[in-house]
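Give me structure tokens for this 229-residue protein.
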Amino acid sequence: MIYVTGDTHGLQDYYKLHIFAGEHPELTEDDYVIIAGDFGAVWDSYTLVSDLKPYTELPFTVLFVDGNHENFDLLETFPVEEWHGGKVHKIKPNIIHLMRGQVFEIDGKTIFTFGGATSIDKFMRREGLSWWKQELPTYEELDEGIANLKRYGNKVDYIITHSCSERALAYPQIRSSATLKVSCPESQMLSYIEENAECRRWYFGHFHIDAELGDKYTALYQNIVRLGK
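Here you go.
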């Protein structure tokens, strides 16, 4: 079973996973919950063990794409491995970072991932302490993603990102919730991916809302939904 949810921000919005685990005692390490960015528990090397502990105690495996509120310097200290066909940082046996521009084959489904986003509050943060420039995807990561999609004939089952394309950004639910109502570099990149790849459904976080947007997009925050629903 594969589920998707929105931002967890370390322990700030972790509790939805704890409740979900209690409601689904049948889930095991062979089941997955994918966090659509702003995982946030890889934040401080001094508190890393305690920050990750609640996640390690969940019965299922936690997968996450990166958001904009991540400590990328710390995240990048973990070695890059290959897992289910794509590149990952394996934080713990049951906590895995799905890197940008990868296609994963999980339970017979193909999933393209592309994390990253613009922090609109970075003027209030300190670089290297509470904000990192790696939050923005690079064109090298975009090129890698395009190449990986081509290997699948530019068609995957699902796309999971932190931010969204310009088309999704235009939906009223997003425009009313987003402080920044203009396109950012990552939305332009995701628009290019959208123009050149097909998927059954696209999931993203970042905007702190739960909404079905047309027949293609699902914005997630507190909801935990089964992949494909």
